[in-house]
Write a structure and sequence with these properties.
The complex is a heterodimer of chains A (545) and B (527). Chain A is mainly α and 545 residues long. In chain A, 61% of the residues lie in helices and 6% in strands. Chain A is built from 24 helices and six strands. In chain A, helix 12 crosses helix 17 and helix 17 runs antiparallel to helix 18. Chain A is globular and about 85 Å long. Chain B has two domains: 238 residues, no CATH class; 239 residues, Spore Coat Polysaccharide Biosynthesis Protein SpsA, Chain A (Alpha-Beta Complex). Helix content of chain B is 57%, strand content 8%. In chain B, strand 1, helix 4 and strand 2 form a beta-alpha-beta unit. The longest helix of chain B is centred in the first third of the chain and has 25 residues. Chain B is globular. Classes of the chains: A mainly alpha (545), B alpha/beta (527).
Chain lengths: 545, 527
């Protein structure tokens, strides 16, 4: 019996209780299962996710991290993120290579580490089996597999959040029992505090939303203060002071540089649907509208699951309360800030809530009678795997951004006398990554990405003059519309009413291409038309207008 | 090592569960109660005023159900607002007590166990009377009770003139005895040694009319029926009864209680006109200005019905008796009861109206499946956004206020007993006479699936209806949402129906066996 100098912690009791249960797993089995889970996400990555087209955000990451560190700091400060991930990616690329696959590999490493991280958190909070099933959910998660293969900071963000939560949970679960705490001083070891400090600092510089994790911890600490060792208050204040000292220079730098550079997509105000979409995406990934509607319409089953969780003596322990707060609070805060200030609600920013959701689901299922729990676990994982497969292979997956095919399509069709116009302007990043054609590339509104300053805002009054500048002496204008910033319809309507549409093609959801004939006085027109009417690449839905 | 060992012992006592105490360790945060009430009100007013209405008949059926739910929730929150109040206890108060053991055909060994325990009570002055109704009820072996009484040296009063069922039996005993206090035990309710020591002291207040203690079922872990029966009781005898103390509205439950003779005589003895004789008598005593007290400690242990038929009969009798009070006694407009007491009595009896509400709610998905009409025409997610926080917090408050004694099974037994409650209500409305029957103390064997035919019928209708709806609308949001509600109802009914199956009756109740495994593990840790 692990009585550290005669002291038993709640965590010990919880673990021993678990060990006493029939069907608990051995350490060797745990390691084997975790290894298989990690291997499975690698296989999925190699076979499916890493082969997808570069997306806008990823292209931005690659472009930003291709600068020297000083320039990179400036660009990121003007963007909506904190710099740690980009710095790591910058040096990762120097050592591993600067291909898309290499850059995605870094996110994959964090995702792989997330699996054991969730396991140890679940084990510490509840039991080995709860941790293990939560780890299964992580590996089977369509959402995490998506972001575990994206050149963005989200898998690192999720990892840092989980590790930080692990150390936080240990701070209040490793303390001796309430009565003993009055007799002895705290027994939370130094490395726990060190781990908490490190993950806090890394988390802060990984994503601004990490602040929501801190706020959730503050709320929990205030409500459950008696569960913490006596010196915790002092320690937390010191850590907060350290955080302020480290973070204020960055905030000053951001403030000093001025407003963000309009490189971020415009967000709409969140509604109740967005909240449920968040949960749906957390569990079932990104599905088309019809599938998503079916999944969301089944919400009364949540009521049934709540009813089923009514078990005698199944109390809500502090760790459950903490995980609940850390699940709900970021979502509520994002909603409130979106309502009070400006829209900031994006499901991927809320990835910090996801591990808590999986841990809570795993815990709730562990409280059910064994046969029911087995059935529900199997059903949940099966549905997640199916929805992940759909997410991976379906062209209708909403988050897919097939700039690669759009670029190849244009490469094979656009002539040197043509012009390609991209709107929104920042979509030039993923497009340019693939496009090697001869036609010139412009954006609407007009924007020089290499010039300092923000992207010009769209003005309906300037649309005509901007279009006139682009038309110049070009033969055909290829309008590639994606990432609607609220003016896509106006742009398309302008070209529809002023020029003859000769072609259109649709790639992944929201990426639409239209060709317009600009001139009739050039002999190259015949050649261009001949080229357009030639065979199309397979898999495209292009139609000759 | 010594420190470690003492800690181990402390941990063991901290973590071990005691079914006799857990349900009484009530208490929840008042802020949770307030937020719960607010969320319920928001939900109700949103569906009443702000959402687009669908079919008007369905809409008003939904609203009627929600009004009832709101009433139940608010009276519950009001009751459990403070569960710590206790009247003054005078340890020097020790008047003489006549102890009645009501018997009507129960096995001698069960009665003997109760009488032996009563004889061993730690109290200065009491006399034991077995009130034997076996003769008038024509029960075989009624003489055996008299022999047993003689053997144990206690008085046995065997009625020869019938009438009034259990109430008549007690009243007959009252006429033949004289002590200022009367304690009543059902034949199977074995008191703890300190029963009188822990209850009589409250009669130090001259206005104290009766003192009630919990009706604990010691056989609760025997099977799914006993577990379900007890878990329902635990909610009532836990937070609800403790909250009633503050409002001077304790419920008289017919056993494990002590009554002041003068209070009882003032109301003409135990009411013989109702099959809920205890409940009505308690109300009459309150009406005359007497006080009441509920002692939140298990001081006697009885037996739950062990088979589905006995359980159903018991529930029918309780429902019939309580609804009788609602229909016949018109207590809301009678003088004597305070406003809080009226609310409490109305809350108690209206519980048995829930059968209709459960049926109405269960019918909503069916009506949609077959006729395509809904009570509301709104985004199902909007409904979810206001309903889920409300139901989630309600469950939390329910659990925390009962010290996590409530279970899915008790919910299922409460909801799925709708057919019993409706039958009782119809019997009450039609004035059909229902006789008092003693709950069987022995498990009856057999298949009681016929008692859950309405539930099987519901599931069948859901399956057929779902096929109709999918054929008509495809996999629309409304079809999926109503299908999910139907699954919820079917799952709740399924848990209840399973208890009626013969093979389920002999199985140990899952949540108890689960608890005991935990306890075994904990014991292993701490030994």
């Amino acid at each position: 019996m692990s009585t550290r100098e005669g002291i038993i912690t709640y965590a010990d009791i919880s673990q021993r209780t678990e060990e006493g249960r029939a069907g608990s797993v051995t350490s060797a089995q745990t390691v084997a299962v975790l290894s298989m889970l990690m291997l499975s996400v690698i296989v999925l990555s190699v076979l499916i996710f890493s082969n997808q087209s570069l997306r806008l955000d990823e292209a931005q990451s690659l472009w930003q991290t291709s600068r020297d560190p000083i320039a990179m700091f400036r660009i990121i400060a003007q963007d909506v993120h904190v710099p740690l991930y980009h710095i790591m990616l910058h040096y990762w690329q120097q050592f591993i290579g600067n291909s898309v696959a290499a850059a995605r590999m870094m996110s994959m490493v964090f995702f792989i580490l997330l699996i054991p991280a969730v396991y140890i958190t679940g084990k510490r909070a509840y039991s080995s089996s709860v941790g293990l099933f939560a780890a299964v959910l992580v590996a089977a998660s369509p959402f995490l597999n998506w972001y575990g293969n994206e050149i963005r900071m989200y898998s690192l963000f999720a990892l840092m959040t989980v590790l930080n939560q692990y150390f936080f949970i240990r701070i209040f679960m490793d303390r001796p029992s309430v009565r003993l705490a009055s007799e002895k001083t705290a027994d939370v070891k130094g490395h726990i505090w060190l781990g908490y400090i490190l993950t806090s600092v890394i988390g802060m510089f990984t994503h601004y939303f990490f602040a929501f994790n801190v706020i959730a911890q503050i709320i929990f600490f205030v409500a459950y203060r008696r569960h913490f060792p006596k010196p915790a208050m002092k320690a937390f204040l010191m850590i907060a002071l350290l955080g302020v000292i480290l973070f204020v220079p960055w905030l000053y730098y951001v403030y000093h540089l001025g407003a963000a550079a309009n490189t971020q997509p415009a967000l709409s105000e969140p509604t109740s649907i967005d909240i449920f979409n968040t949960f749906s995406q957390f569990l079932f990934g990104f599905q088309n509208d019809q599938t998503n509607t079916i999944l969301l319409s089944l919400w009364p089953l949540v009521v049934l699951l709540i009813f089923l969780s009514l078990r005698r003596n199944q109390k809500i322990e502090p760790q459950t309360a903490y995980l609940f707060v850390s699940l709900v609070m970021p979502i509520l805060l994002a909603l409130m800030i979106s309502e009070a200030w400006k829209p900031i609600y994006l499901t991927r920013y809320l990835i910090l809530s996801l591990p808590s959701l999986y841990l809570l689901i795993s815990w709730v299922l562990s409280t059910y009678p064994e046969r029911l729990a087995f059935f529900l676990r199997t059903a949940l994982v099966s549905i997640m795997i199916v929805t992940m497969a759909v997410e991976a292979v379906s062209a209708a997956t909403p988050v897919k951004e097939d700039y690669r095919d759009a670029s190849y399509y244009l490469e094979s069709r656009a002539k040197p006398t043509d012009v390609i116009v991209l709107s929104a302007p920042f979509t030039i990043y993923p497009f340019e990554y693939y496009y090697r054609g001869a036609a010139s590339v412009e954006t609407l509104p007009l924007w020089d990405q290499y010039a300092a300053g923000p992207i010009p805002r769209f003005s309906p009054a300037e649309l005509k003059s901007d279009a006139a500048k682009i038309e110049d002496s070009h033969q055909t204008l290829w309008l590639l519309l994606s990432y609607d910033q609220g003016y896509e319809k106006q742009v398309k309507a302008y070209f529809d009413t002023h020029f003859q549409k000769t072609d259109e093609a649709h790639f992944s959801s929201g990426i639409d291409l239209y060709a317009y004939r600009l001139r009739y006085d050039n002999t190259s027109l015949k050649a261009a038309l001949k080229s357009i009417s030639g065979p199309q690449p397979s898999g495209q839905k292009g139609t000759l207008g | 090592m010594r420190a470690a060992k003492s800690y181990v012992l402390m941990t063991q006592s901290q973590t071990q569960k005691d079914d006799r105490k857990d349900f009484l360790a009530t208490g929840t945060s008042r802020s949770a109660i307030i937020i719960n009430g607010a969320l319920a009100a928001i939900y109700f007013f949103a569906i009443l005023f702000f959402f687009k209405r669908g079919d008007m008949t369905m809409f008003w059926i939904l609203i009627a159900g929600e009004v009832f739910h709101l009433w139940q929730l608010f009276t519950y929150l009001y009751t459990v607002w403070d569960t710590r109040y206790m009247p003054h206890f005078d340890p020097t108060c020790e008047p003489a007590v006549d102890i009645f053991v009501t018997v009507c055909g129960e096995p001698v060994e069960i009665v003997e166990q109760t009488v032996r325990a009563i004889k061993g009570l730690d109290y200065s002055s009491f006399r034991v009377y077995i009130l034997n109704d076996g003769y008038v009820a024509n029960k075989p072996g009624w003489q055996d009770i008299e022999s047993m009484a003689a053997r144990l040296g206690v008085d046995c009063i065997t009625r020869k003139a019938p009438g009034g069922a259990k109430a008549g039996n007690i009243n007959n005993g009252l006429r033949l005895t004289a002590s200022p206090l009367v304690a009543v035990f059902d034949a199977d309710h074995v008191p703890h040694r300190d029963f009188l020591k822990k209850t009589v002291g409250y009669f130090g207040d001259p206005k104290m009319g009766f003192v009630q203690s919990p009706q604990f079922y010691k056989n609760h872990a025997k099977n799914a029926v006993t577990a379900g029966a007890w878990e329902q009781q635990a909610l009532f005898f836990g937070a609800i009864c403790m909250g009633k103390n503050r409002l001077n509205a304790a419920t008289m439950c017919g056993t494990n209680m002590v009554i002041r003779r003068s209070a009882l005589e003032e109301v003409g003895g135990i009411c013989e006109e109702s099959i809920a004789e205890d409940f009505v008598t308690g109300m009459f005593i309150h009406q005359r200005g007497w006080k009441s007290c509920y002692v939140p400690e298990v001081l006697a242990e009885g037996l739950a019905p062990e088979d589905f038929l006995s359980y159903t009969k018991q529930q029918f009798r309780w429902a019939r008796g309580s609804l009788d009070v609602l229909f016949r006694y018109n207590f809301l407009f009678k003088r004597g009861l305070s406003g809080a007491q009226k609310i409490q009595y109305l809350s108690s009896v209206s519980y048995f109206l829930s059968g209709f509400v459960v049926l109405m709610n269960a019918a909503i998905p069916l009506v949609f499946f077959f006729f395509g009409v809904t009570p509301l025409q709104i985004s199902t997610m909007l409904l979810a956004a206001i309903f889920l926080p409300y139901i989630f917090l309600t469950i939390y408050v329910l659990q925390s206020s009962t010290n996590y004694s409530y279970s899915f099974r008790s919910l299922a037994f409460s909801m799925a007993g709708f057919n019993i409650h409706i039958s009782a209500m119809l019997a009450g409305i039609m004035g059909k006479k229902s006789s008092f029957s003693v709950t069987s103390k022995k498990q009856l064997s057999g298949n009681f699936a016929n008692l859950v035919m309405p539930h099987f019928g519901y599931v069948t209708l859901c399956l057929v209806g779902l096929a109709v709806a999918i054929t008509r609308d495809g996999l629309s949001a409304s079809v999926m949402s109503n299908a999910a509600w139907a699954i919820l109802n079917a799952s709740v009914f399924g848990q209840y129906a399973a208890a009626a199956m013969p093979e389920r009756a002999i199985k140990a109740a899952p949540s108890f066996s689960r608890t005991s495994r935990k306890e075994t593990a904990r014991s292993a840790v701490t030994s």
